[in-house]
Amino acid sequence: MSEVTAPVAPVVAIENLSKHVGEDVRLRGWLYNKRSSAKLHFLEVRDGTGIVQAVVFKGDVGDEAFARGDKLTQETSLVVTGTVKEHGKRKGEYELGVKSFEVIGAPSQEYPISPKDHGTDFLMDNRHLWLRSKRQHAIMRVRHTIVKAVRDFFDQDGFTLLDAPIFTPNACEGTSTLFETDYHGEPAYLTQSGQLYMEAGAAAFGKVYCFGPTFRAEKSKTRRHLAEFWMVEPEVAFLTLEEDMNLAERFLAYVVGRVLETRQEELKVLERDTSNLEKVIPPFPRITYERAIEILHENGHPEAKFGDDLGADEETVISNQFDRPVIVSHYPAEMKAFYFKRDASRPELTLNMDVLAPEGYGEIIGGGIREESLETLVKAIEAHKLSMDAFQWYLDLRRYGSFPHGGFGLGIERTVAWTCGLPHVRETIPFPRMLNRLAP
């Protein structure tokens, strides 16, 4: 007679345990934390989808296995087999009654990140390990949702995704913040923005967007800046400034709404007060740059004057006057890039707009209408002392069927910081690149 072997329990993700109550399953993951008594080990096991308490009772696994459990150290990789049970004290949570476990890989030395507090530099040096923590896991889950929502919004709204190049022959935002590199003997630069290429795309497809990394060589140590960050940049043919603002607020409300809909547990881990996020509903308040200067005067900043840039402190004062993002438009032309179209009624102003997030997070969207006149654009390039040769392809867009158009750029990292309520953008991207930090 042949031997009958017991069926092997199926491998289940922790996030799906609620579908397997009363069943035997296998979990594959890592030991996050452990506490023990004479007859019980409480193992916190994580698998990338969540963390569950696996209860090892000496009477269920035997003396030898229980003794092995006592030697398990943080971040040991293992396979745990047991019965899924509803948590005895916390409704909606589950635990595992362990029947057996197998160690796959034990750490060769003590895991450097313990539950105690660590300094920022230490955590950044160990970023590759810090990502395993509950807080970082929650942030990256929210980032994932924001990225997915970005793509879904534009894909559903009739946009075509075009990929902009990383190497470019010219500046977009300003020559002082370019990373220069050698491109087969020719100077090239890491892209500051995909916008100029999206303008070409808008002439071909009408509505396009790019989504990828961008680079700024700013000598900045603020909590809002990275040397490498991700931007989404839509560009639309025949767009007006009013339509651009409508698109921006509709887009931002969609993204925030998706996070609120699907990431409540992660926001709880981050202790994020979501009441302000729930107010991100169009229409957003809209003010001009000149009104923004008046608001600064009214709130203890009499030194602010026309032509001054709005820094982090000024943006905070302005956004604090509103309960949701505010759109600031019509900045002085001298403050903006060469490609912005000027207001016909007031040529000293541009047809641009910034969206300022509340709670001190500042500008998360910047955009506006582009200059479509070939003659005017040539003069602007000359005035900014930029290479005319490098922009010949860009000028072709005005030579062959020029058209009014516009769009904007949204920085993913600032959006993640705002949505999660984080004090610094360094936590918003898996491996941040900042001034004086290139590793890990």
Low-confidence stretches: none
Distance between the termini: 59 Å
Q: Quick check: average pLDDT?
A: 94
Strand content is 15-25%
What summary fits the major beta sheet? 8 strands, mixed
Descriptive key words:
440 residues, alpha+beta, 5-stranded mixed beta barrel
What does the model show?
This protein is an alpha+beta fold and 440 residues long. It is 29% helix and 25% strand. The chain has an eight-stranded mixed β-sheet. The longest helix has 23 residues, at 134-156. The protein starts with 23 loop residues before the first strand and ends in a 20-residue tail after the last helix. 35% of the residues are buried. The mean pLDDT is 94.
List the topology elements.
Layout: E1 24-36, E2 40-46, E3 51-57, H1 58-61, H2 63-70, E4 77-86, E5 94-105, H3 120-125, H4 127-130, H5 134-156, E6 160-161, E7 167-168, E8 180-183, E9 186-190, H6 195-205, E10 207-215, E11 228-237, H7 241-262, H8 264-269, E12 286-288, H9 289-298, H10 312-319, E13 326-329, E14 352-357, E15 362-369, H11 374-383, H12 392-399, E16 405-411, H13 412-420
Parallel strand pairs: 3-5, 6-10, 12-13
Antiparallel strand pairs: 1-2, 1-4, 2-3, 4-5, 7-9, 8-9, 10-11, 11-16, 13-14, 14-15, 15-16
Helix pairs in contact: 5-7, 5-13
